[in-house]
Amino acid sequence: MKAFGKKIRLFRRNLPSVIIFEIMYKLLLFAVFTPFFYACFNFSISVAGIGFLTPKTLKRYLLSPSTYVIAFCLLFVFALLFLMHISALIYAMEASYRKERTNSVYMLFKGCANALRVFNVRNIGMIGYCILIFPLVGSVIITGYLFSAKMPEFIIAFLINHRFFVAGVIIVYFILGIFVSRRIFAVNYFTIYKMDFKESMQASKRIGRRHVVGLTIGLILLNIVFIVGLILLEGTLISLIAKVLRRMISYKKLVFVITVVIQIGFVFLYMLVSIVAIPFIYSYICHRFYEWDQDALYVNVKEIKERKRKHKPITEEQKNRRNRITTIVVVVISIILNGLYIHLAVNKKMNLNMYRPNRVSVAAHRGDSKNAPENTMAAFRLAVENQADVIELDVRQTRDGKYIIMHDDSLKRTTGLDRKVGEVNYEYIKKLEAGSYFSEEYRGEPIPTLEEVLEFAIENDIELNIELKPAYTDQNYEEGIIALLEQYDFVSSCVVASSDYDVLRKVKEINSDVKTVYIVHIAFGGVGELEYADAVSVRYNYISANLVKNMHKQGKDIYAWTVNGEKMIKNLLLMDVDCIVTDNPYNTKDVIYNANDTILSDWLGTLIDEY
To answer: Percent helix, strand and coil across the chain, each rounded to 5?
Structure first.
């Protein structure tokens, strides 16, 4: 216990100043780096030539050279801020070692000044070094970010699909991390002795090589302790407490109030742990540094005395007043900047152009039918361009057995011909145009066939929601469509929908692997128990949270049609529907990724709904 007390002595002596510095640093980091990160990320998406990041555009984004140039810039700024952070902590530990007091403002200014030394060509290597040592020192920060920002599912899927490459990168990164652990004191020499990068690395290696194993194990154990603490405080303990309370107290509202109060307390504890973790870890590193480098006590003594002699002395009261004023100014500026950032985020002026739903996909209703004539290749191309996940379309059969894309049984509304589809041969239908009714811009747009759409979907890697609309004139209607899906190897890339349950039964009898969707206006009774429907598509204003929950319990998906209003899209997101069918896919995507920024309101809504 006595040995442990010695190791944290550096941490305790200037603890108030260190905590104030950590608060100021995190406020400044959030106020400056977060908007900078948003701006750079959105700029990288724009330069890559895509609207926003989705499963369909991720590959294109990663293949763009500009992505890596901007990522390098972000890493450079992050490493610079990290160097400023640990330099400030080293100055505080240095003062503690000399049994002197320091203050948060002095730490901030000295940390900034030391970090700016990397712009000397002899010190630029310190940036790469900081990136490599970050896991050894900042695992707590990584854990905190993983809790606060859930990674989009399509990125997780990408990482899983490239798991061997990702594993290789991680292994190489940790090997380099072990290599630099022998030089863990380089920042100490860089900060205290004012050595350049190469000299700092050599000096650190000289004293680190004899103690590298013990030091690395100590750092790993400290990180594990803090990470476990964060995991428990983040939600594990509160979930356990809530379960116990539910068993002990039958009054749900009282359980809710107590749980919220306890959760607020845990949030403060979580913040406290995240604030003291890095200083505590660095106090351990600095303790070892002073323990193994006995000359460190005399570093910069002459420089300090010379500086004090040249400058006009000020009283302790003047010094304290100056520090208080500077601290207040820094905190106020940080709060103003953070307030501005939050205001911009709330008003949709600043957000990540990343589509981040947990479950929901967006289906373009008859293509992008808001901006192009429905069920045409023009509408389908626009749907792909506007980031739809699925294209919803309708299939009818001509008199000679050809499958065309048409919603109505009559050709009159979209082509002007007052005949039913099943009464006309395809050779006549392909001479018609289905665009001028929408706009003169699309005059001459032909009626596509199902084969053309399947080829287009394969080429553009997009799924289809194929609604079957059989008529009394059709022959082997379902068999022919399933045969085409099998011919194009498209069974796993589409769903087959119908408002006629017997059609779905027939589809399943032909090929049980086809995913089927039962279209209804309103769902009630045992709709979730229907054997031949894998999903149910319900008119949006008849969907409730209980309906979605019950459908998911029975292993079935639920689709909402046809949704165009922002408020309803957000409500459906909270209900956790699986697919939103819309006339305007780009607008719906825009609402979805903006809705993900309302984390607090989503959490409160979920909590209130639970109780």
So the answer is: 65, 10, 25
